[in-house]
Amino acid sequence: MGKIFTRFGDGTPTELSEVELMQDLEAGTQDAAERGKIAALSPEELKRIYEIFASPYNFVSVERGHEVVLTYDAATLKIRRVGVAVDRIQALQIYEKILGADTMELCHVDYSFKPLKPIVTMEQPVLEQALLSTHVPLFYGAMPNLGIYSQPDGPFPNPAELMPAGKIEAAKESYEQTVAEAVKDIVSVAGAMHESGADGINIDTVGAAGDADFLAALLATEELKRRYPDICIEMGMAGEFVIGMHGGLTFHGVRLAGLYPHDQLKLAEKAGVTIFGPVVNTNTTQSSPWNVARATTFIKAAGEIAGIPIHPNMGMGVGAVPVNDHPPIDIVSRASKAMVEICRLDGL
Amino acid sequence: MGVGDPFAMAMAHAHASGMGGMRAAGDLVARLQMTRGMKIREAKQYVAGKLKIAVSDLTDPVIMTEVRQDLQLGTMSPQPRDARGIEAKFRIAEALGIRINCVDRFRQKTAF
Q1: In chain A, positions 113-132, which contact chain B (CB-CB < 8 Å)?
Q2: What's the rounded mean pLDDT across residues A5-31?
Q3: Of A23, A201, A281, B16, which one has the fewest beta carbons inside 10 Å?
């Protein structure tokens, strides 16, 4: 076989020899194994991914019978983002009837729970109306986004200004205060949308502002499950690694900073999450085979211990999908197939 | 799933590894993950059992259109007088033996 067409993590086309392809797969899985202290992929699993990348076809798919359920974060936002001027209910109908979506998500362009709280009564009728005319399960989603709780966007002192000034304890105290406020906002909005009939709540991009962000999502989930035992909560992460912006925050005695997907999953289960969405970041300077081997290594470790359905994030920039607004389908389909067939997945 | 244009995300993943939504039984299997926390294999077996079809039929749009038409679970191309929207979701809840939040709410709002 001659050179094999593939891409870098930013989508730039490249070619690899057979030896180079296998070397990249081995290096990718080793990187994940070392960082996450988890098992690397077996030679058989690497050979399977090798075959997926060596396929000459533009597009590949899972074998018949291996199909999984798809969930979509910020779905209605994406129709508007590409400039299609339709209402959100029409956007949902596009997902359901044109894109073959298994589930859908209604969301607001200001995709955070905090700004939604004062306008939730404007969001509820849209959801209620959408539920009358659609068929597939409908989530309502938003982000905890703890970054907007500190000055100048929010009421609390900005930790990013306090820490460089050496005011570490004040910064930590500010993070702790934002957690309490964020939990109230998430519970308020999610509770309202559940009472309006939503099939599920997607707490999305969790951990974007670090360990305090993750803690807010976990505590809000616990409270929502206490109030509404039947509520479905999907928790989608922001990155593969919980950044310790506070450093000392814990949930049920487990320190949050530094957790990788398989450990994040355990806490999500403990909080009562229904579907967990782990993330592995795409490295733009490495090849797509390297990224796929690395991502599947992390997600396989989570899949093997998951007692709840897991839907890894496979959007632009995560799950080995290239960092580009228009991810090429040759790599998206290969990443999709490898992720589903190597890991014990329930969805994407 | 996530960020990226719908051609690269929603369409590519749907063709590469999705269940086909309401063209097939993707929405029905999803409901078992969401309401019962079932893993994919268990959810597929449950839905196939309730609909009295094989698990392999769940992603077949030809077979599933017939099943959905017969049971009035909502189809991509509904015919006149077919159940659609909330009507179909009443039928889905009954066929799968599950509770659907908006169906329960509809009942409460329409009952005297």
Answers
A1: 128, 131-132
A2: 97
A3: A23
